[in-house]
Design brief:
It contains 12 helices and 14 strands. The chain is α/β, with parallel strands linked by helices. Helix 5 (123-133) packs antiparallel against helix 6. The structure holds adenosine-5'-triphosphate and magnesium ion.
Length: 332
């Protein structure tokens, strides 16, 4: 069973914005993508995570009709991404990992050119987005830094208010303040019913905007999860120091509490969100000197939950997995 069905993560509505069914892409004998099925509903942001070489860009290229599947299908609003790619292009704003820009054209000339191709005038909207992203549209593309090229690609993708945004690591190279602006642009897009597929190496980058996340490894979709379910399951580290000594037995009855330890006047344990209220009431019934409660990083818990560091499927020895840091594999 695929993670998509086994985790009950299927979109429930009849009309899905994106539907990948058994999507497979082989380059020679290598399967860059192997039997991936996934649906993304209207108004949903899907965070697509995976280490280098996992198949993120391949999935995205199949979805925007730039690659022909070896098997299976990719569809946007019921249109086949390969066979009906012209119609699909009208619905999709695409930010490639390496934006292809014309060196000699300015931002404004790119905007005019894209408007011309789409037979619509999106210059006003482009100018607004550029101001928010702090991007100068008068400069030729060849003079733009990597981050500013990325911003121009975002402007070109969102200016026509497409139904679907497909973003291949759009915020790599963009500084954190601008990332926040980018996230608010994304939220406005989904508030209007738009959807997005957003690829990244790191959960931290998509967790602020994604409704669901999927992890791809060695061409296979190995996990799909709603972010809110993940957050509800995440453990909190709780530590309380009391004026008087306590016994572990007083707190052992709280359902879900684990790793309970008492050292003289100090209690420490791990607790799921659902246990926090009961635990806090027991703690506050005594005189407290010090109290700490911190959430374990979502990334750590997500990876350990799925044992993702133990999954096979890497094609290259260089692509080793690092789960202790913040990346799903090395981000370099
Ligand atoms: N045109 C191609 N010809 C041959 N192999 C390819 C081609 N494009 C991708 N691959 C292979 O397919 C696999 C998946 O690559 P893909 O670019 O989709 O990974 P990715 O998840 O986007 O990685 P990254 O995080 O580095 O961008 C890799 O093993 C890659 O070498
Ligand atoms: Mg890629």
């Amino acid at each position: 069973m695929s993670p998509e069905t086994s985790m009950g993560a299927q979109s429930t509505d009849g009309e899905s914005m994106v539907r990948l069914a058994g999507l497979t892409k082989r380059f020679g004998r290598n399967a860059a993508l192997d039997d991936v099925s996934l649906t993304i509903g209207p108004g949903e942001v899907f965070g697509y995570l995976g280490p280098n070489g996992a198949g993120k860009t391949t999935t995205i290229r199949l979805l925007v009709g730039m690659l022909r599947p070896s098997a299976g299908t990719a569809a946007v609003l019921g249109l086949d991404a390969w066979r009906q790619s012209r119609d699909v292009h009208r619905l999709v704003g695409y930010v490639p990992g390496e934006p292809a820009l014309y060196d000699r054209l300015t931002g404004n000339q790119h905007v005019a050119y894209c408007s011309h191709l789409r037979h619509r005038d999106d210059r006003k909207r482009a100018a607004e987005v550029a101001v928010r992203l702090d991007l100068d549209l008068d400069r030729p593309a060849r003079t733009l830094s990597r981050g500013n090229r990325q911003k121009l690609a975002v402007v070109l993708a969102v200016m026509s208010r497409p139904r679907l945004l497909v973003l291949d690591e759009p915020t790599s190279g963009i500084d954190p303040l601008v990332q926040q602006v980018f996230h608010s642009i994304l939220r406005e897009h989904t508030a209007d019913g738009g959807s997005a597929l957003f690829s990244s190496h790191v959960l931290g980058e998509v967790e602020r905007v994604a409704d669901r996340i999927g992890v791809v490894r060695g061409g296979k979709l190995v996990a799909v999860e709603r972010l809110q379910d993940l957050a509800a399951r995440s453990l909190h580290r709780v530590r309380a120091r009391f004026t008087d000594g306590v016994s572990a037995a007083e707190f052992a009855g709280v359902p879900g509490v684990r790793d309970l330890q008492v050292d003289g006047r100090t209690l420490s344990c791990n607790a799921p969100q659902a246990a926090l209220d009961a635990l806090l009431k027991l703690v506050s019934a005594r005189e407290v000197e010090d109290f700490e409660c911190s959430e374990a990083p979502l990334e750590e818990m997500f990876l350990s939950y799925y044992g993702i560091d133990q999954q096979p499927g890497h094609t290259s020895a260089a692509e080793t997995e690092s789960v202790s840091g913040t990346a799903v594999g090395h981000a370099g």
